[in-house]
Amino acid sequence: MNVKSICSKILAGERIGFDEGVYLHDNAGLDTLAYLADTIRQHMHPEGVVSYIIDRNLNPTNVCITDCTFCSFYAKPKDKEKSYVLEREDIYKRIQETVDVGGVQILMQSGHHPKLGCEWFEDLLKDIMARWPELHLHAMAPSEIEHLGRVSKLSTLEVLKRLQAAGMKSMPGGGAEVLTDSVRAKIAPRKTSSDDWINIMEEAHSIGMRTTATMMFGHVETTADRIEHLQRVRDLQDRTGGFTAFIGWTFQPGSNPLGDELLASGWSKASHAEYFRMTCISRIYLDNFDNIQASFVTQGADAAQLALRIGCNDFGSVMLEENVVSAAGCFELVDVSEIEKHITQAGFTPRQRNQAYALL
């Protein structure tokens, strides 16, 4: 096995396997990976358009009993100073602000609240859809679905069907982190297992619900863990075709136990170069994913701009609100004009899209 032979295989349009993915990740130069990823992006998206969406990341509650060591956002149920559950009128106000500026989607995720079950969210989604029937609700995540099932004593498929009937149109890929249980045992031992995350995604696809796949890397995982993650979502995409996009981002170490532990050991936060390498590998390995999204929220707009030339064809969201990674020290939110400027400067035509990646 060598880089040249793997590159030849990729440029011939052939799929690479796990061992080749690991070898390429660890041995190919970043310039080689960038060339491969950009070639694939050009082949899949020859029209020269880079998309983005206008939405809001709405978190109805931050109360969570899962205690993930990498999370700076959540609050324990007894933490009266930090914990919250938004009032309905507050939620409605935030949604109206989003709609007023052309927002087409609400990305809704929460903590794992011990007392808020499927019924609470079902009622909330119904109320939202009654007020804004054209709004797209990109809501919950596999770990939340599993938690709601436990609280309400329902199967995860029943939870998905009930939330879908209430107005949930698609599901984000939150809670994936890295889909190997050895990693999850270190950073999120009480969270959804790798198999359960995949199974809940497959259930969502089985009822016609499109979803995204995500990955939070740059902490305790190995190269093999990263490629296993990509392998698992690629295998599921082969079975269902239900993923619309893949989004990867780097772990943010601010204000969380995992960050404190790693920094104390002499660990360094993942660099832009490491993000670029993994972005390239994602575009190369996920040959059945149409879309790869840049992560300007964690990397900054300039780095996201460069990512458009190494495999990404989407700039992400003009988020009117973001609470999770900002709690770890990331505050990189930009407006429509800045996003369009960065896309144009990279040599592409900016276009607004919806969750299905249809251009508006």
Question: Can you put this structure into words, describing what you see?
Answer:
The chain is α/β, with parallel strands linked by helices. 46% of the residues lie in helices and 14% in strands. The protein has helices at 3-11, 18-27, 30-44, 88-100, 118-131, 142-152, 156-166, 181-187, 194-206, 223-240, 257-264, 272-285, 296-299, 301-307, 336-345, and strands at residues 49-58, 105-108, 136-139, 168-171, 210-217, 243-250, 291-293, 314-319, 349-352. Strands 1, 2, 3, 4, 5, 6, 7, 8 and 9 form a 9-stranded parallel sheet that branches. The longest helix has 18 residues, at 223-240.
Percent helix: 40-55%
Basic shape: globular
Number of strands: 9
> What is the CATH architecture annotation?
Alpha-Beta Barrel
Poorly predicted regions: 324-331
CATH superfamily: Aldolase class I
N-to-C order of helices and strands? HHHEHEHEHHEHHEHEHHEHHEHE
Radius of gyration: 20 Å
Give me the CATH fold name. Answer: TIM Barrel
Structural class: alpha/beta
Number of helices: 15
Summed over residues and divided by their number, the pLDDT gives a mean of 93
Quick synopsis:
With 360 residues, the chain is of the alpha/beta class. It has helices at 3-11, 18-27, 30-44, 88-100, 118-131, 142-152, 156-166, 181-187, 194-206, 223-240, 257-264, 272-285, 296-299, 301-307, 336-345, and strands spanning 49-58, 105-108, 136-139, 168-171, 210-217, 243-250, 291-293, 314-319, 349-352. It has a single domain (29-352), classed as Aldolase class I (TIM Barrel), CATH 3.20.20.
